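Holo prediction. Input below; ligand is uracil.
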Amino acid sequence: MELLRLQKYIAESGITSRRKAEELIRHGRVKVNGKTVTEMGEKVDAEIDTVEVDGITISPETKKFYIMLNKPAGYITTTSDDFNRPTVMELTKDIPSRIYPVGRLDYDTQGLLIMSNDGDFANEIMHPSNKLKKTYLVCIKGMITPEEIRRLKSGVDIGDYFTRPAEVELIGATERESNIKIIISEGKKRQVRRMCESVGHIVLRLKRVQIGNVMLGNLPEGKWRHLRQAEIELLTKRNG
Ligand code: URA
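Structure of the complex:
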C-alpha cells in the first residue's frame, strides 16, 4: 500500500503540476471516493481510492515519459481540435501513456516539441522565470536589412507587447527571401512571426531547433525519441 498526498497523486496523473493541483483542491474541484476534499493534508492509496477532478476519474502514471518530437508543419499542439486538424498526439500514439505537449508550436511551425506526462516537469519548463532560450530558424520573404536585424535584436512592438532583446543572426539573403536565426527567452503567442512582420517581412517557414541546451539534431520529421537523462536535467536546471 502506497499513500500519496492528494496533490502529488493529481500531478502524477499528468494533468497538471502539484502547485496547480493544490488550487484545484482548494476550489472544490477534487473528490476522493465521491466526497469533495478542500483541505491539503489528505492522503490517498493509489490502489484502493478513487480520485476525480471535475467529475473525471484520474490515476497516477508511475512511469514518466519525456520525449522530443520533430513536429511537421500541419499539426496542432493541442490534444484535440475543433476543426479536425491532425494533432501531435497522432504522431506519439505508440507511447503507452497520456503525454501532453509542453508549450506550443503554431500549426504551421515545425521542429522541436517536448512532450511529457510529468506535470511538474512541464510546469517548470514553461514557467516564465525559467527563461529557457528557444532557437528558431526563420525563412522570411524579401531581403532583410542590417537595420531591420538591429531592430529585431533590440526589441520590437508586436501589437500588445514590446519584445525583449533577442539574439538574431543572418544566415543568408537574396532579393526573394532571407534566412535568419532568432533566439528568444520568452514565448508570446506567434512571437517570431509577429516580430518579423513588425519589421516588414512575412514568415515563409519557421522551425524551432533548440530549447535551452537541448537540440533537435537529426531527428527525422514526424519522429520522436526519449530525452536523455542529461537533457532532462539541462531543461530543469534553469541554466538554458
Ligand atoms: N513563434 C511563432 O511565431 N510561432 C511558433 O510556433 C513559435 C514561436
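The chain has a mean pLDDT of 92. That is the main takeaway for now.
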